[in-house]
Amino acid sequence: MYTRLYRHGVLEKEGFPIAEVSDYVSDPDNTVWFDLCRPTPEELGAVGEELGLHELAVEDVVSERQRPKVDIYDNHLFLTVYGIHLDGDRLAPVEVDVFVTANALVTIRENAGFDIAEVVKRWDAFHRLAGHGVVYLLHGLLDYVVDSHLDYVENLDGQVDDLEESLFEEANRVGARELQRTVYTLRRNAAMFRKIALPMREVIGTLLRRKQDLLVDPEMTPYFYDVYDHTLRVDQWIDSLRDLMANLRETRLAQQGFRLNEIMKRLTGWAAVIAVPTAITGFYGMNVPYPGEGQPWGFWFSSVLVAVSSVALYVAFKKRDWL
Length: 323
Hints:
The protein is an alpha+beta fold and 323 residues long. The protein is built from 9 helices and 9 strands. It is 59% helix and 15% strand. The longest helix is centred in the C-terminal third of the chain and has 64 residues, at 221-284.
């Protein structure tokens, strides 16, 4: 359980029971944060009544897989964002719902895959801004989420670069199936990541555009614009990666087609080399009179003809790179 109490920008208390929150939020000089991980509907209902949260916002927490968004109510904000979590090599984003009141911030995590302790470290790193109250807490949370998106898209870019290099390595002719699986996983992760990353620009933009009494703090505005700039970088990066992965897929298909053409060309060449000796031996094997029938020179003549024609065809095809 994570709880914190700030008073006049100074961290006064942490780790206290959530039941004490109501005693602190009544004082406008206090700023309270607490975190819930996979709360029950009863717990959500109690929190909603305690802080006066809108019932639709509480219902959104219960509903799974909300898109990243910000809803503005009379006395609070409701945000949905997604943290980055990897299950093996597959992306498994974690939904984080956030309630923001005048002097309280509540984070509700879908599961423990979102490391809230890293957000706490981000707040401690910017402790000089704690005097701005709940806006300081909201900035630290969004800054961590967007920076994790930026780190992940950078990691995707590195994986795409590695795949581009491996496409032209001879060894991958053996590991083609593994390469195909890697490309599929990468495309799946990128598509899922795009769904949770692109709407963040709208979320931050809404917070900057709307003139809410809750967020009127000119000194914090540049910090939110910095987060907004990071969302733009993520959007541009993921769009460029989509183009790169599309080119990667097209290159892979073209490479497979080229490889198939090479195989068919060589098989056709060998079939032509074999066809002439087959025709000669077939002619000399018929039950009809033919030159040299019953004579030793007939056998040697057919053998020499087979050898000469085979070598001649092989040399001719090899010279034209058909074999």
